[in-house]
Amino acid sequence: MSANLKYLSLGILVFQTTSLVLTMRYSRTLKEEGPRYLSSTAVVVAELLKIMACILLVYKDSKCSLRALNRVLHDEILNKPMETLKLAIPSGIYTLQNNLLYVALSNLDAATYQVTYQLKILTTALFSVSMLGKKLGVYQWLSLVILMTGVAFVQWPSDSQELDSKELSAGSQFVGLMAVLTACFSSGFAGVYFEKILKETKQSVWIRNIQLGFFGSIFGLMGVYIYDGELVSKNGFFQGYNRLTWIVVVLQCLFPWSHPCNNSYFFIRLRSQTCRKSH
């Protein structure tokens, strides 16, 4: 059962990340009348919905008792302010990363973005070795080298890219690439930092994700005010939102454990478990 659950989780994660990339890319390049939706507001809405989803999961774990839910949230979050504040660091990184992914997909095609973003597995491995003292086997290092080689070949210029550059004339491929690389490093660090916090405490992943979402909402609203405050005051918070936009937002919060930092953590753990052939 544990092995089947592991691969089922991997399949769901692959479906979620792939569908999110394709729909996000399409939503950022689709030409429609009126203003385009603001990525900063989409990040905030996704965080709020993710908090709600995690609260429902905690409610279910509390045997569907509102009194038990209130006690858990009070004891695990309000009564442990220092433990809650520890999540401010990965949450801030995660909010920045989410905005960078929108920038990347506005300037890169989906295939290039998806392959390049897999460098987060490499950064997660490096941070795991440096911060947690983990040791990776020969086959794991070899896999990471192959991954780097594949990403390098994807970025290698070709004649076909001259045609693609015309289609992407509205954005800079360099900006998109820098956004992806920055997101990869932030993903690796946040994922390992999150793993370290999980090992040091006994709080559930749902509680931790509520804490992440709380700080993420605050940081996200600050970003909306600083970068898009004028546009929001002029056209409203939900300007440019349509059915496709809501699909992107729902995909981001459909699986509350699927923060980008959690994804990189999940990938490296799954790879190490598979190499050892044990759960």
Verbal overview:
- This protein is mostly helical and 279 residues long.
- 81% of the residues lie in helices and 0% in strands.
- It has 13 helices and no strands.
- α1 runs antiparallel to α12 and α7 packs across α13 (260-276).
- It is globular, with a radius of gyration of 20 Å.
- Residues 159-163 and 256-279 have low confidence and may be disordered.
Q: How would you name the oligomeric state of the polypeptide chains in this document?
A: single chain
What is the count of helical runs? 13
Reported for the largest beta sheet, the result is: none
Structural class: mainly alpha
Shape: globular
State Rg: 20 Å
Number of strand segments: 0
Give the fraction of residues assigned to helices: over 70%
Share of residues in strands: under 5%
Low-pLDDT stretches? 159-163, 256-279
Distance between the termini: 10 Å
Order of helices and strands: HHHHHHHHHHHHH
Question: On the 0-100 scale, what is the average pLDDT?
Answer: 79
Layout of helices and strands, plus pairs?
Elements: H1 2-29, H2 39-61, H3 66-78, H4 81-85, H5 88-107, H6 110-117, H7 119-132, H8 138-155, H9 159-167, H10 173-200, H11 205-235, H12 243-253, H13 260-276
